[in-house]
Amino acid sequence: MGPQELLALDRAHVWHPYGPMPGAEDPLLVSSASGVRLRLADGTELIDGMSSWWAAIHGYRHPELDAAVRDQLGRMSHVMFGGLTHEPAVWLASRLVEITPEPLHHVFLSDSGSVSVEVAVKMCLQYWRSTGRPEKRRMLTWRGGYHGDTFHPMSVCDPQGGMHSLWRGLLPEQVFAAEPPAGFDADVDHDYVRHLADLIEQHAHELAAVIVEPVVQGAGGMRFHSPRYLHVLRELTAAHDVLLVFDEIATGFGRSGALFAADHAGISPDVMCLGKALTGGYLSMAATLCTSGVAEGISQGEVPVLAHGPTFMGNPLAAAAANASLDLLLRGDWAGEVRRIEAGLRAGLAPAADLPGVADVRVLGAIGVVQLDHAVDMLAASKAAVAHGVWVRPFRDLIYVMPPYVTSDADLARIGAAVVAAAEVG
Ligand SMILES: Cc1ncc(COP(=O)(O)O)c(C=O)c1O
């Protein structure tokens, strides 16, 4: 089938993320990808500044990841996880326990980030039901967050960005604190700490958990905050009998400069969600980890099991990709690579700060953000980046990149130039 025919069928039949039906814009048709480059049907090659939304940290068609998936394909691509188990999933779960903060000891594997957040919320609600406090059923979060598109995750997304007004009456009503003060290195704002303390104390009787994205708020606004607020949340939740959930679906596996964003603060939540880069971006898989305290609480309930069990739970192909991705990451100097990318992005994006219409330029780890003082003209900005040979996907007032860790310095410079060009016209 030719490209024009494919695009016509795409427009007529295929939903794209946050897209209308029929489609309003023609997506770019990708025929293959390798290293950090996407190859389009017309032969154009674009450097991927997005890592396919935080996921492809090792780039595309990595020989080790390809071999791991191929090898697993030769054994079995999938078997149900109820009553059966297998080496790729067991090995993966035990390694996740090893590398995540102590004492997260138990792992629930699921198929996507949103589902892993659903599972995290279910763990927390079921924990309190099972331990005789069913009234603890609300979640608290800070504004500016994003946790996925299914209903419980949506209920803890930023109320405006998450379009809560569209879902009034349907979404569980959660408790919202103000956005955390901006700046990874900023001093702690004591008024904000008091605000968190008041809110948690006031609602403790009905709160199952506090859920946040630690250090980096991603799709809710690409904002960075001080790890000190994670300490504050840990202390307040422990003091008030409230569980703490970290959604590390975007930040996990080195992206923010620490293996997990929680490591910036040296603390552990009670429940943690992982996804995206878990499989190196090869296949869809996510994980929800919890402490033995949470697991034991659930086990003492009237229904002593965690009431969840997706068909593709623990998928062997995805687990094999995840194990190979972890091998690559932990064997190599991921921290050095992320620092190198951080330096490259700082240098490359700096000229954007002088452009009219640019409100802020910020970089943390392998994440670079140019924030405009107006809504970005997405089409014009993407076109400008493509003209520089780079794929970006701006949203709202943000042009942002999180390149694969294997991006060379020369390609990083091209990404920087492309983002600056996008900011000029966006
Ligand atoms: C922090 C965070 N949580 C949850 C999700 C949802 O993950 P998924 O798109 O795999 O459902 C995302 C996706 O962008 C995310 O960034």
TrEMBL record:
It is found in: Cytoplasm. The keyword Oxidoreductase does not apply. InterPro entries: Aminotrans_3 (IPR005814), Aminotrans_3_PPA_site (IPR049704), BioA (IPR005815), PyrdxlP-dep_Trfase (IPR015424), PyrdxlP-dep_Trfase_major (IPR015421), PyrdxlP-dep_Trfase_small (IPR015422). GO terms for biological process: biotin biosynthetic process. Pathway: Cofactor biosynthesis; biotin biosynthesis; 7,8-diaminononanoate from 8-amino-7-oxononanoate (SAM route): step 1/1. SUPFAM superfamilies: PLP-dependent transferases. Its cofactor is pyridoxal 5'-phosphate. Transmembrane segments: none annotated. One of its GO terms (cellular component) is cytoplasm. Its main location: cytoplasm. PROSITE patterns: AA_TRANSFER_CLASS_3 (PS00600). The modification N6-(pyridoxal phosphate)lysine is found at residue 276. Homodimer. HAMAP family: BioA. Catalyzes the transfer of the alpha-amino group from S-adenosyl-L-methionine (SAM) to 7-keto-8-aminopelargonic acid (KAPA) to form 7,8-diaminopelargonic acid (DAPA). It is the only aminotransferase known to utilize SAM as an amino donor. This is Adenosylmethionine-8-amino-7-oxononanoate aminotransferase.
